[in-house]
Design a protein that fits this description.
Layout (H helix, E strand, L loop, with lengths): L9 H4 L2 H16 L6 H8 L6 H25 L4
Helix pairs in contact: 2-4
């Protein structure tokens, strides 16, 4: 699990590769409907002076996954 990478040192907090990996992990957990997806958001919130772009991207992914889940549930009623 990558969510513990950013706890180490302050120098790693500014590394965009770690944030990118967290975003990939967020996407994967959303697609797997993993309930621990909130842990990634908590890790991002602990970064000092975070860039707002990862939060925007995560919000977009979350909305996309919510819409996709709702559509699947809605159309399940029509499939015979």
């Amino acid at each position: 699990m990558l969510t513990f990478v950013l706890y180490g040192s302050d120098s790693r907090n500014k590394d965009k590769a770690d944030i990118l990996m967290l975003m990939y992990e967020f996407e994967a957990r959303c697609k797997l409907q993993d309930p621990s997806v909130e842990n990634i958001i908590e890790v991002l919130l602990k970064i000092p002076n975070p860039d707002p772009k990862p939060f925007e991207t995560i919000a977009g992914w979350y909305m996309y996954m919510c819409i996709l889940t709702n559509l699947q549930q809605h159309y399940q009623h029509f499939i015979v």
